[in-house]
Design a protein that fits this description.
Number of domains: 1
Distance between the termini: 18 Å
Largest sheet: none
Structural class: mainly alpha
Shape: elongated
Helix content: over 70%
Strand content: under 5%
Length: 74
C-alpha cells in the first residue's frame, strides 16, 4: 500500500470511530432517563417525533460512515 492509501484508510477508521463515539455519548446522556422509556405517556407527540427523527439521523450517520469506510459500492 502506498502512503496515500494508508492515510485514507486511517481517515476512514477515524470517522467510523467518531460515529460510534456519537452513539456512545448519546446513550450515556440519555441513560439517566431509562425509566422514561418504560412509560412515555407523559411525552407529547412532538417530543416523540423529535426522538424518532434524531434516532433516524444518527442511524443514517453511522450507516453512511461505515459504508464509506468499506468503500461500498465498489
Amino acid at each position: 500500500m502506498n502512503t496515500m492509501a494508508v492515510h485514507l484508510a486511517a481517515e476512514r477508521r477515524f470517522y467510523v470511530g467518531a460515529a460510534i463515539g456519537v452513539v456512545v455519548i448519546v446513550l450515556a446522556g440519555f441513560s439517566v432517563d431509562l425509566d422514561l422509556l418504560s412509560d412515555m405517556s407523559g411525552l407529547s407527540a412532538l417530543v416523540r417525533l423529535h426522538g424518532a427523527v434524531m434516532f433516524g439521523w444518527i442511524a443514517v450517520f453511522v450507516t453512511q460512515t461505515v459504508l464509506v469506510a468499506r468503500r461500498w459500492p465498489r
